[in-house]
Amino acid sequence: MSHSFTYETGEHFTNVSVYIYDIEHVKVTLQGLQQLVKDTINAQPESYAPLVFEFKILDNKEEDDETMWTGEFFLKIVQQYPSLHPLVHQYVKSIQTPILQDNCLVGFSAITALAVFDKNYLEEFEQFRKWCIAHPQNVLGNEKYHFTEEIEEPILETLDTMLYEINKYTWDENVMEFMTTCMVKSEFVDWIAGAFPKEAKADFFDAFLKLLLEKTPNSDQYLTENPPDDFYEKYELDELFERVFRKKKMDTLEWYGLESDLEERFKKCLAKGKIPTYEYLLTQFPDDEDLDPSDFDNPDDVVEAMQHLADKAMEYKMHIGAFAEFVGACDLNHPSSGWEEAEIMWEVISHWEWCPETVELAAVCMMTPAQWGPSECVPFSKDMPPDMFDLLIKEVCDDAFHLNLSQPKVYDENFEIPERSSIRYNFRFKNIMELVLGVFEGKDEEVLAHQLHKALAQECYPTYQFFETGKMG
Q1: 200-217: per-residue pLDDT in tens?
Q2: What number is the average pLDDT over the span 63-81?
Q3: Can you give the pLDDT at residue 222?
Q4: Cβ pair 166, 116 in contact under 8 A
């Protein structure tokens, strides 16, 4: 079927009829638009035809008549007919002088549509925008305009309307390229942030943020220990994050709390040289290995972080070390009001059979100064194999009395403890005694204390066999 270019000039619009599902007629229409623009520019200002178009869709598949405004039409054909991209570009190139009509920049919708669906036209889009800004005159009619007061408005309004239409399509790689380029190179940050898909999926969000950072000039400076503090504000990520992370039933106060956490995690992640991800931002403690009690203002927050690490340590044995490191850094002389910390330590150690990992944790729990004694946070009564007991008492003796710094000694059964020995007055001695008493329940406390004192005074490691038989192996 052959169709010609058909249009009718109105007071404010030129109405163009098109069979949009017929690629051949779309070609004819694009060629006609190109010629109409050329003829209009060459005509006298008093007799020009409006170059703001409205398209009547003749082969509409719906029952009612359909019309499309300029941006909607170009988005449709650029997305549907990739082979017509060069022809759409020719139409844009036919506009030899910036034309502002009825608060619309002629050609801006077309070049925007190309840039949205074909990243090869991103630079052309930016050049066209800058070209309009650099030539502040309206050749059609006698009215002049000034960029900062008038031309900025149609650019932004057109883009805003285009973004509304773009959201009807799936954001593919090309759309993402366009959006990030606009945010980095243009003054359209708030328009882009406001058009970001609501509740975007994690992989899409991660790809967008990564691309945005990569496109940002001198991006390496943001992935440093002390990054510039303007990235979050520069790209108005608060609005973008609200669209992605705020749920429908979340009240304002609840959202402000989450928003503050998101910003803090975002900046903290950059300072670690990492690109923030969806999962990272929504995880309460994203950097387990970097958690430090000093990051929190009150003991209750420390307990929350400790419980988080404890849950992981009870799920996977490999995380016990991180939990132990966190415990060792806590100020347990000023714990939470309910002393929940001691309960959490007990739970983690109790969760597993005695092993090198739980022995290391028990040693930390015993030797970290606290408001409670070791037997309140370490389950000594749980059956402890002799080899695990020997490993644990070695750990705590090294920590308390630095036996590891001495040359190995031979235990002398006839050794007399010096009267001036202060070992038994060391609070760490008492902590070790809680271990010994817990394991050798029923034995005479004074006898066990004397054995421990005698071994430590000779810088010898006491063992399970030693307490059981009184003989060093």
Answers
A1: 788 888 999 999 999 888
A2: 84
A3: 82
A4: yes
Residues 51, 53, 54: CA angle, nearest 5 degrees: 160
Backbone angles phi, psi at 283, to 5 degrees: -85, 130
pLDDT score recorded for residue 462: 93
Strand partners, 6: 17
The residue with tokens 């710094």 is: 405
Neighbours of 252 (CB within 10 A): 8
Structure tokens at 297: 């203002």
Tell me the average pLDDT of the chain.
83
* Residue 419 clears pLDDT 60, i.e. is over it: yes
How far is Cα 221 from Cα 239, in angstroms, rounded to an integer? 24
Residue 119 CA neighbour count, 13 Å, CB half: 11
CB neighbours (10 Å) of residue 203? 10
Whole-number Å distance between alpha carbons of 98 and 139: 8
Determine phi and psi for 17, rounding to 5 degrees: -95, 135
**CA atoms of 309 and 344, how far apart (whole Å):** 10
| pLDDT confidence band for 24 (50 / 70 / 90) | very high
Quick one: which of 195, 222, 217, 197 has its CA closest to 207?
197
Which 3-state string (H, E, C) describes the chain? CCCCCEEEECCCCEEEEECCCCHHHHHHHHHHHHHHHHHHHHCCHHHCCCCCEEEEECCCCCCCCEEEEHHHHHHHHHHHCHHHHHHHHHHHHCCCCCCEECCEECCHHHHHHHHHHCHHHHHHHHHHHHHHHHCCCCCCCCCCCCHHHHHHHHHHHHHHHHHHHHCCCCCCHHHHHHHHHHHHHCCCHHHHHHHCCCCCCHHHHHHHHHHHHHHCCCHHHHCCCCCCCCHHHHCCHHHHHHHHHCCCCCCHHHHHHHHHHHHHHHHHHHHCCCCCCHHHHHCCCCCHHHCCHHHCCCHHHHHHHHHHHHHHHHHCHHHHHHHHHHHHHCCECCCCCCCHHHHHHHHHHHHCCCCHHHHHHHHHHHHCCECCCHHHCCCCCCCCCHHHHHHHHHHHHHHHHCHHHCCCCCCCCCCCCCCCCCHHHCHHHHHHHHHHHHHCCCCCHHHHHHHHHHHHHCCCCCCHHHHHHCCCC
| Domain residue ranges of the chain, discontinuous segments joined by + | 1-168, 196-283, 285-379, 385-473
Residue 343, Cβ neighbours under 10 Å: how many? 14
Q: Give residue-wise pLDDT tens across range 167-194.
A: 666 677 888 888 888 888 766 676 677 7
Rounded (5°) CA angle 370-466-374: 10
